[in-house]
């Protein structure tokens, strides 16, 4: 089935592209969520006529998302979960759990915007991507531990390790330039 995209969709195309997708994907996702129109002559003409309005709306949403990105970028969130001594969680931390934490800083974020390959099942510090707009993503840090104190200690240890790595890299670069 051919459709005209009304917004940028990863791995599919950008706004205004006429793409061929499977009928189920179009019927069940793209069309109900108003992310695309069927590629009929009337709909293509309608899109071309309204293209400026669609682009203006997309830019407006992108600027709002940029503002949210500034508040969320690099923010640290703590999750308290029971875990074994090896660090395996009794349960997992899902996109819904992370979205609930992020909503304290940005109420408009929902669990569909949190990008996880799989639920987090290990205690430690994890970097999680939040897609605020099709063109705007940010990264937040989630620290998972049995208590909030341990979660804070994990983040301090991780920061020290990254500082040491940065120092080592700068030393090796300065040695290379000296030779």
Written account of the structure:
The chain has two domains: about 1-55, Ribosomal protein L9, N-terminal domain (Ribosomal Protein L9, domain 1, 3-Layer(aba) Sandwich), CATH 3.40.5; about 70-155, Ribosomal Protein L9, domain 2, CATH 3.10.430. The protein has four helices and nine strands; from the N terminus they run E-E-H-E-H-E-E-H-E-E-E-E-H. The chain has helices spanning about 25-30, 40-70, 95-100, 150-179, and strands at about 1-5, 20, 35-40, 75-80, 90-95, 115, 120, 125-135, 135-145. The protein has a four-stranded mixed sheet with strand order 4-9-8-6. A three-stranded antiparallel sheet has the order 2-1-3, covered by helices on one side. Strand 8 (about 125-135) and strand 9 (about 135-145) form a beta hairpin. It is elongated and about 60 Å long.
Number of strands: 9
Gyration radius, rounded: 22 Å
Distance between the termini: 61 Å
| Secondary structure category | alpha+beta
Envelope shape:
elongated
Provide the CATH superfamily of the largest domain.
Answer: Ribosomal protein L9, C-terminal domain
Give the strand order, joined by hyphens, for the main sheet: 4-9-8-6
Helix and strand pattern:
EEHEHEEHEEEEH
Q: Give the strand content.
A: 25-35%
Q: What is the average per-residue confidence, as pLDDT, rounded to a whole number?
A: 85
**CATH fold type of the largest domain:** Ribosomal Protein L9, domain 2
Which CATH architecture of the largest domain is right? Roll
- Low-pLDDT ranges: none
Query: What is the total domain count?
Result: 2
Broad CATH class of the largest domain? Alpha Beta
The DSSP helix count reads: 4
For the sheet with most strands, the description reads: 4 strands, mixed
Work out the helicity level. 40-55%
């Amino acid at each position: 089935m051919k459709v005209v995209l009304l917004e940028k969709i990863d791995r599919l195309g950008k706004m205004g592209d006429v793409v061929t997708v499977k009928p189920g994907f179009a019927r069940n996702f793209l069309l109900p969520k108003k992310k695309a129109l069927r590629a009929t002559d009337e709909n293509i003409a309608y899109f071309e006529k309204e293209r400026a309005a669609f682009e203006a709306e997309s830019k407006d949403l992108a600027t709002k998302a940029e503002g949210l990105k500034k508040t969320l970028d690099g923010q640290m969130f703590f999750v308290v979960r029971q875990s074994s001594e090896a660090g395996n969680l009794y349960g997992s931390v899902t996109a819904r759990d992370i979205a609930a934490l992020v909503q304290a800083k940005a109420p408009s974020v929902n669990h569909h915007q949190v990008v996880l390959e799989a639920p987090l099942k290990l205690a430690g510090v994890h970097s999680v991507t939040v897609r605020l707009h099709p063109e705007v993503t940010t990264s937040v840090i989630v620290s998972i531990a049995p208590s909030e104190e341990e979660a804070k200690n994990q983040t301090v240890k991780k920061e020290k390790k990254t500082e040491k790595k940065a120092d080592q890299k700068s030393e090796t670069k300065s040695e290379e330039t000296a030779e």
